[in-house]
Amino acid sequence: MSPATSLIEVRNFSFAIRDKQILKEISLDVRQGEYCTIVGPNGAGKTTLIKCLNRILRGGTGVIRIAGKALQAYSQRELARLISYVPQANGLIAPFSVYEFVMMGRYPYSSPFSPANAEDKRAVREALELTGTEALAGQALGTLSGGERQKVLIAAALVQGAGILLLDEPTTFLDPRHVWEIHRLLLTLHRERRCTIVSVSHDINAAALISERIVALKQGTVAFSGRTEAFMNQETLEHIYEKSFVFMKHPGTGKTIVVPEGVV
Q1: Integer Cα distance of 3 and 220 in angstroms
Q2: 141 DSSP β-pair partners
Q3: 32-57+73-231 placed in CATH 3.40.50.300
């Protein structure tokens, strides 16, 4: 992958918290309009990496570039117009209605304490409609289910108008119906709006079914980076997860999916 075509470039990036090395010499690229999923065992550094991409975590050594420009060269407002971030929805209890919370996502375009203008209101209305949360607009965040909160978080990210969407395990703790709804929403954003999506996930099968590329971390290093179909093989998965898998074809798509050996 040529750096000239990469929207996100990471070169020899390392990051430590106190004396613990979390990421070690990470290099990867994400093209504009690509759907990339970051997978790997617990403690591999997945969440740390995605937070470094959005400068939630600052520091480290090496280089991160967004749209060809060094990450540290952006102001916070400039960066927020390029990248939006969706954290896990568990524990989101804030004293705001859904509408108020989503409107806060317009902060890159407004001055402190300035009233919402027509464009702000249009963006919020469109995000609520797209995520299917318009009926929840007047409800307090604390009254929502996990799946509803996750869709509201995505709506708040969408109103930023950013072309890059980073998500940290967006379907964790959700029931199957809401998992399906979140995946369908993300695919819509990717295919119809050409959002560049980078998502952290523990679900190997979901990553294989919906993403174009997979980056797998193990002990803070890149153990695999490439097309999804190249990832789904015994040698690669056993190296990353230290566990054998049984492979089968998805009955609907024909794509390869897995279960751990011994389950079937």
Answers
A1: 22
A2: none
A3: yes
Average pLDDT of the residues in 39-52: 96
Coil, strand or helix: which one is 96? coil
Question: Tokens standing for 4?
Answer: 């000239």
Cα–Cα dist 42/50, whole Å? 15
Other Cβ atoms within 10 Å of 212 Cβ, number: 16
pLDDT tens, position by position, 203-221: 999 999 999 999 999 999 9
Distance CA(98)–CA(125), nearest Å, equals 11
Neighbour-count burial for 225-259, b at 16+ CB within 10 Å, e otherwise: beebeebbeeebbeebbeeebeeeeeeeeeebbbe
Q: Which residue in the block uniquely carries the two structure tokens 């400039």?
A: 78
Q: Is 173 helix (H, G, I), strand (E, B) or coil?
A: coil
Place of tokens 């991160």: 64
**Of 205, 195, 229, which Cα lies nearest the Cα of 8?**
195
The per-residue pLDDT for range 62-73, each reduced to its tens digit, is 999 999 999 999
Tokens for 148?
């509803």
